[in-house]
Design a protein that fits this description.
Elements lengths: L7 H6 L16 H4 L3 H19 L3 H8 L11 H4 L7 H5 L14 E6 L9 E5 H19 L6 E4 L7 H13 L2 E3 L6 H10 L4 E4 L1 H13 L4 H4 L4 E4 L6 H10 L5 E8 L4 E6 L9 E4 L5 E6 L12 E8 L10 E8 L16 E3 L3 E2 L4 E3 L2 E3 L1 H9 L4 E10 L5 E2 L3 E6 L7 H16 L4 E6 L13 E3 L1
Parallel strand pairs: 3-4, 3-5, 5-6, 6-7, 15-18, 17-21, 19-20
Antiparallel strand pairs: 1-2, 7-8, 8-9, 9-13, 10-11, 11-12, 12-14, 15-16, 17-19
Helix pairs in contact: 7-8, 9-10, 13-14
Length: 462
């Protein structure tokens, strides 16, 4: 099926590049992806009813619903759904080690664990049916939306072990029919050569890791623009600013697109959000599997749905997952719902558009009464030509996040003629102009601050 437009002039009026005419749009599941919003909601309600009937057999879920004087069998009622208690970290940890498993453990093919930095990690299972019938199709839709084609060579650079990213991406690449080089992160010098010699056309990894690979390649005399063949990148693990994304693209072969990808351990992996070639420019992502992972965007204080253009927290319900489902799980990830959530030129009219992850509701800093997100700090750093985009952190004196002062540590590019003191003063002025507050700024030489192969830690308590 194809996107429906009145004519090509409409496409041009929306600012779509000539190479991205609507007739070029391809869908993995056109019977779902071309539905309008009412069609997606109808699927969600049918699946919520079936999920509620299944959860009614679980003592843990019955107890959870009883907190709001509800029964799981009421899950299909739209009015009851909004009253279902949200799931928090404490709910999972109270049921350590296998919270809300809902299937016999001998039916679990694979366990993964949350990547939280505090407390014991919580294990989530994938049943044999989850792996075979759910994760493959979900990830195939992600790949198709980003413009990946079956048969392409993919450098898979997400981590393995109990972390969810690498293994689920492997399942997706297998189901999609791509050729997977599952190297994972690390071994930068070897990977820089393999990107040249193996002619990978697609990569999946942390954006910070790609920048490390770029710098490693240049040090070895390899020019990524000329010597690599990458044309599509799927980047997750942390959100990055538009400026950093554009810098990544400028280091790659002509036409390369860096797509934001988004997911969570609790949702089943990097299966929630992806930009398409049309939403890539405006820095938006489709909640591409909203028919199987229902996503709400709610005010983190009132828990009411936000309106288009407003910032809210993503709350998810896994409609089809057999092992370890979640109902109204609070991701704590904050996004802006697009001004026109269902108007993407790609034709996916029922799958909402959201902006990149702004930060986490539990990562917000309140400095002298002003709310600050780490992504806002990154935007300022990335806009200065003399800073190292991938190396920065916010240093705070205590962990309560309500502060009188904070320090931003950055790196100065090697060979920069500007002194560290002058660069610090420039950045202080930029922070004051853009955020309305004063930060202390510490400038280090390039290479002094930590690098991260996966999720970056940006707020450091000293």
């Amino acid at each position: 099926m194809r996107c429906r437009f009145e004519d090509q002039r409409e496409a041009r009026s929306r600012g779509i590049p000539a190479a991205l005419t609507p007739s070029k749009t391809e869908y993995q599941h056109p019977e779902i992806e071309t539905l309008d919003r009412d069609g997606i909601v109808a699927i969600q309600r049918r699946k919520l009813k079936a999920l509620g009937e299944r959860l009614a057999a679980s003592r843990e879920w019955v107890e959870h619903f009883a907190r709001a004087d509800l029964r799981p069998s009421q899950l299909g009622d739209p009015e009851a759904f909004s009253c279902v208690p949200t799931l928090e970290k404490r709910d999972l940890r109270e049921r350590y080690p296998f919270p809300f498993l809902t299937t016999p453990i001998d039916n679990v093919q694979r366990f993964v664990a949350t990547s939280g930095t505090t407390g014991l990690p919580v294990l989530f299972g994938f049943s044999y049916r989850d792996v075979r019938d759910l994760m493959g199709p979900q990830m195939s839709r992600i790949l198709r939306c980003a413009g990946v084609r079956p048969g392409e060579r993919v450098y898979q650079g997400y981590g393995y072990g109990l972390w969810v990213g690498g293994v689920v991406m492997d399942w997706g690449l297998q189901a999609f029919g791509a050729t997977n080089f599952g190297v994972g992160p690390g071994r930068a010098e070897l990977v820089a050569e393999w990107l040249r010699d193996h002619r990978y056309t697609v990569c999946t990894m942390s954006p910070l890791w790609l920048m490390t690979l770029v710098n490693t390649a240049k040090a070895k005399g390899i020019d990524p623009k000329r010597d690599w063949s990458l044309r599509v990148g799927l980047f997750g693990g942390q959100s990055i600013s538009a400026a950093f994304k554009h810098e990544l693209e400028s280091e790659m072969p002509e036409g390369f697109l860096a797509h934001n990808i988004y997911g969570a351990t609790e949702s089943g992996g990097p299966n929630l959000g992806i930009s398409c070639p049309y939403s890539h420019g405006p820095d938006l992502m489709h909640l591409i599997n909203d028919d199987s992972v229902l996503s709400e965007i709610i005010d983190p204080q009132t828990l009411e749905p936000v309106q288009p253009g407003e910032i809210g927290e993503i709350v998810i319900t896994t409609l089809d997952k057999e092992a370890s489902p979640v109902v109204r799980w609070r991701t704590r990830d904050l996004v802006r719902l697009a001004d026109d959530p269902y108007g993407c030129p790609c034709g996916r009219r029922g799958l909402p558009l959201v902006g990149r992850i702004i930060g986490r509701s539990d990562d917000m800093l309140k400095i002298r009464g002003v709310l600050v997100f780490p992504s806002q700090v990154e935007d300022v750093i990335a806009s200065h030509p003399l800073t190292v985009r991938e190396a920065w952190q916010i240093e705070v004196a205590r962990g309560d996040r309500v502060l009188d002062e904070a320090t931003v540590a950055v790196e100065r590019r090697a060979g920069t003629p500007v002194s560290r003191d002058d660069l610090a003063r420039e950045l202080q002025g930029m922070f004051r102009a853009r955020l309305g507050i004063r930060f202390d700024v510490e400038v280090h030489d390039e290479g002094a601050l930590p690098r991260y192969e996966a999720k970056a830690v940006r707020v450091i308590t000293k």
